Amino acid sequence: MRVAVIGATGNVGTEVLAALARRPEVTSVLGIARRLPVRTEEPYASAEWAAIDIGGATPAQEAIAELTEARVERTPSSISPG
Length: 82
Prior knowledge:
Elements: E1 2-6, H1 11-21, E2 28-33, E3 48-51, H2 60-69
Parallel strand pairs: 1-2, 2-3
């Protein structure tokens, strides 16, 4: 399954990326952040990335178009912490 992580470069987002990398049912991850990380190190290297400011700097239609192009669907409830 494909999972999108909004705020993927923050403290929590970075831990979520690492946790998702250990889940065999997760086949791809889209990291969404205002500023893209250095993508040569884990957990950032194994994700695809989109620079989208969900909080407002990216116009809504542009953000929707980027998320649609990336084929982002709602986060599945089958993934839970722990």
